[in-house]
Amino acid sequence: MSESSSAPADTPLVARADFQYRWRVYAIFIVMFGYGVLSIRDGFYKWPAENALNHEMIARHEKPSEADHNDAAILINKVLGVLLPAISLPLFIWLMYRSRGAYRLEKDTLSLPGLAPIPLDKIQALDKSRWEKKGIAVVEYHDGAGSTQTATLRDMVYERRTTDQIVDRIEKSLGGSPAPAPQSEGG
Fold first, then answer.
1. Which of 39, 68, 125, 152 could potentially form a cystine with 81 if both were Cys, beta carbons 3.0 to 4.6 Å apart?
2. Percent helix, strand, coil in the chain (nearest 5)?
3. Per-residue pLDDT tens for 122-146?
4. Whole-structure pTM over 0.85, yes or no?
5. What is the CATH number of domain 102-173?
């Protein structure tokens, strides 16, 4: 995560939603919703009809071409057919909402989707404990009323290189030091 090349300090930085992240969200939705629709077809219509046809063939003393689908498989398909489409749409909406807008650092002001602009001089700490492995940095700042707030920067959701540059610039504005390590109690 620290591979970013520095841009001049007065250059505005804009990290838009990452194309790969959004592509993955679309793929997850299509797979979950599609599998759910196929499970509805198999669990509610196709497999029960095939079982009924097999039972008719057995009643006429004919050998069915396929074995019956067991009740557990039909039930599992019914459950997946109901749950997957019901889960996939809200999940898709939430993941796309999470990647709305852009991170913007311009004129010593950090703008994040859904939050009021944050002047760099109001930022108190930068927690990079999950930065190297997960690309998640948490900014602690004081809002206009003086209360402490947090904002999260994720370099998987927004353009990685620009997000890395924004985090580097925030770190430099704090004097180059990330958030202090939590102190242990009792010593």
1. 39
2. 50, 20, 30
3. 999 999 999 999 999 999 999 888 8
4. no
5. 2.40.50
